[in-house]
Amino acid sequence: MNLAKVSSNGQITVPVEIRRILGLKSGDKILFYQKQDGEIVVSNASSQAIRKAQIAFSGAAEQMEVNDELDVQFLVDEVRYGKGR
Description:
By secondary structure, this protein is α+β, with helices and mostly antiparallel strands.
């Protein structure tokens, strides 16, 4: 268990152990949300954004027939140089 004090400006210092667990670095944003049972959850907003992107793009590689690094390189070259398949 960790304890943080709220300043008169509403600021807190996130304890070092929690920063390590969340992978927080200077300048990162913290996401606070309330679950249906009332519990408040704190998470690294960057990690949440990455997870959401992974979910959103799930299956996209298969749909685009991207199977390996060569396919990825081809797509990069196509964007850079206008080469088509």
